[in-house]
Each structure stands twice: as structure tokens, then as C-alpha cells.
Amino acid sequence: MEAAAASTSRPRIEGDREREIYHATLELIVETGYDKLTLDAVANRAKASKATLYRRWSSKSDLVLDAVSCLEMHPPTLPDTGSLRGDLMAMAASKGMLEPERADVFCGLATAMYRDSELREQLTSRFVDPRENHLRSLLQRAQDRGEVRPEADLDLLCMVIPALVLFQLNFGTPGHLPPDFVVKVVDEVLLPAVQAPCA
Q1: Can you tell me the distance from the alpha carbon of 97 to that of 131, in angstroms, rounded to the nearest whole number?
Q2: Is the dihedral of CA 59, 64, 67, 73 positive or negative?
Q3: Which of 61, 148, 198, 199 has the most C-beta neighbours closer than 10 Å?
Q4: N- to C-terminal Cα separation, the chain
């Protein structure tokens, strides 16, 4: 009985209508940021019923988490080219959180993630940790092969590429990532950092 009541109180929104609402939510996050986002604004942008949105999502954060989920940021298959550089290039070529449109969304959520610990934890566990763990596994494998010095801080190194990409997207070439940028970060920053210094 309770399950039936829950299903009627949270109507399902599926297919194109659902995608339109998520798309409108993501657009508004980029344009106005999380703080100014409202369910009313999403309803207006998506030309959806406000009552339906309010019944389906009990809070703004619930809607945002569902909308970000549609970005499909699951880590790709762990590449295995036989070298650290080859693996990093294969990872850089795959779709993921480092694409400008995805980075723009997370930039729009930045202040909220700073202020709202619960939202930060949910976003981090769903979307950031999986990719960071993916990169760490790649670095760990390279370390086991002897390509990364034994004392290297793998947790710190995992932050290098995402941090520089986000900085470039915000301050270097806003909204645009030069096609060779990640290659330069790998060759000029990350690889020199993991290698043992010459005697």
C-alpha cells in the first residue's frame, strides 16, 4: 500500500520529456549556477508542468543529481596499451568529465559543492571518484611495471590532469579546450613528475 502511494506521489517522467527537463536543468546550471537555479525556472525552460516537477523531485538537489547522471560520465574500459603514455592518451581520447560541456556543468556547481557538503559528497561519489579511481588504477599498473617511481604520490598525481583542464577551461580558453592541451599536460607535466630523476 505504501509503495503504491509513493508511486502515485512521484509520477514518472520518461523518454523525450525526461531528457528535455534534464537538458534544461544542465543549461541553467551553466548559465546561472546552482544557487540561482529553481524548479520553476527549469519548468519554464523545458515548457513542463511545474506541478509535475514538484511532485517528481522533492528538492533542487534531487533534480540536479538526476540531470547530471544523464551526462553518461561512467569511466571507459581501462586502456592497456603497454605503456603509461599510451594508456593516458587512450584515456584522454575517450569521452568523460573532461569534455568542455561536462566541465561547464561542474563549474556551475562549484560554489554549491563548496557550501553544501551533502551535495558535494553525492556528486563526488557518483561522478568524480569513479574516474579518479580509474586513473589511479592506470598509474598503479604503470608503477608495478616500473614506469612510475615507487615513492610517487598516486593520489596527488590523479588530480593533475583534471585540475589543469578545469583551470584552462575557466581562465585560459574559457569554454574551449585546445586539442593538444591534454597531450601537453601528459608529456610536460605528468610524465616528468612520475619518472625518477636522472642521476
Answers
A1: 8
A2: negative
A3: 148
A4: 73
Q: Which residues of 50-88 are buried (b: 16+ CB within 10 A; e: fewer)?
A: eeebeebbeebbebbbbbbeebebebeeebeeeebeebb
Domain spans, the chain: 2-69, 84-187
Let me know how many helices (H) and strands (E) the chain has, helices first.
14, 0
The CATH number for 84-187, chosen from 3.40.50.11260, 1.10.357.10, 3.50.50.60, 3.40.190.10, is: 1.10.357.10
Q: Are 16 and 22 in contact (CB under 8 A)?
A: no
Q: Whole-structure pTM over 0.70, yes or no?
A: yes
Q: What is the mean pLDDT of the chain?
A: 84
Cβ–Cβ contacts within 10 Å for residue 172, how many? 13
**C-alpha span between 127 and 123 (Å, rounded):** 6
Alpha-helical (H) ranges within 94-177 are 100-108, 110-115, 117-123, 129-145, 154-157, 160-167
Spatial separation of the C-alpha atoms in residues 39 and 63, rounded to whole Å: 8
Q: Is 34 helix (H, G, I), strand (E, B) or coil?
A: coil
Summarised one tens digit per residue, pLDDT across range 38-87 is: 999 999 999 999 998 999 998 999 999 999 888 765 556 788 999 999 99
